[in-house]
Amino acid sequence: IKYDAAGNLYIANSDGTLNRLDISGNVTTIANNLGGATGLALNAANEAFVVNSSGQVTKINSSNAKSTFAIGLVSPQGATFDSSGALYVTETSRNRIVALNTSGQIASAIESLILSPQELLSSGNGDVYVLNSQSITKFNGNTPGSIVGRGLLAATSFTIAPAGIRWSVWPRRAFGFPSTISDRATRPSMWSRTSLSTSSRST
């Protein structure tokens, strides 16, 4: 799941569809036959890049036309664009993150940054966040950064809402934590209810 700049939420589904949930609550299917989606990224032009379990990245442009952007990735999961426009994709079983150039070719790889990386998010200021099942780590370019959230239990996804709340999703649970305490490396449920007033636990 990813938000665009206008606050619309894009959801890539395992049935091969891509949905857009607008701020009024209307759901539109903007693409289908994408394979079993495992990751999603939006660029500055609001073009969607859907990663599937077969190792393919499909681009959906602003007119909802599809084209193959990249193939041959291994167990890809998350995807995101950084502030320079580079597309990062996790290769979970290889324990690495690859950066794809504008032709869809691997330009560089970040090895051994985090075990079994899954989802990726860009902060917009050059930092990219990577989630595995237990923690969130940030990096900039090829430089590993600090752990900014740990103690998660089988986390599967996260996103940055327009208000700056990062959401981490566990099976049947969702936690949010404000970006103002992004470097606090502890489990979100350990934080005070005051700091989580806009993001209480749901089951």
Can you give a write-up of this model?
It is built from no helices and 19 strands. With 203 residues, it is mainly beta. The strands form five sheets. Strands 1-2-3-4 form a four-stranded antiparallel beta sheet, with no helix packed on it. The chain is globular, with a radius of gyration of 16 Å. The chain starts with a strand and ends in a 25-residue tail after the last strand. The C terminus is likely disordered.
Helices and strands, with pairings:
Blueprint: E1 2-3, E2 9-12, E3 18-21, E4 27-31, E5 37-42, E6 48-52, E7 57-60, E8 66-70, E9 76-81, E10 87-91, E11 96-100, E12 106-111, E13 119-122, E14 127-131, E15 135-140, E16 143-150, E17 157-160, E18 165-170, E19 173-178
Antiparallel strand pairs: 1-2, 2-3, 3-4, 5-6, 6-7, 7-8, 9-10, 10-11, 11-12, 13-14, 14-15, 15-16, 17-18, 18-19
Structural category: mainly beta
Alpha plus pi helix count: 0
Helical percentage: under 10%
Q: Numbering strands along the chain, what is their spatial order in the largest sheet?
A: 1-2-3-4
Envelope shape: globular
C-alpha termini separation: 19 Å
Rg calculated over all Cα atoms? 16 Å
Tell me how many strands there are.
19
Low-confidence stretches are: 167-203
Mean pLDDT: 76
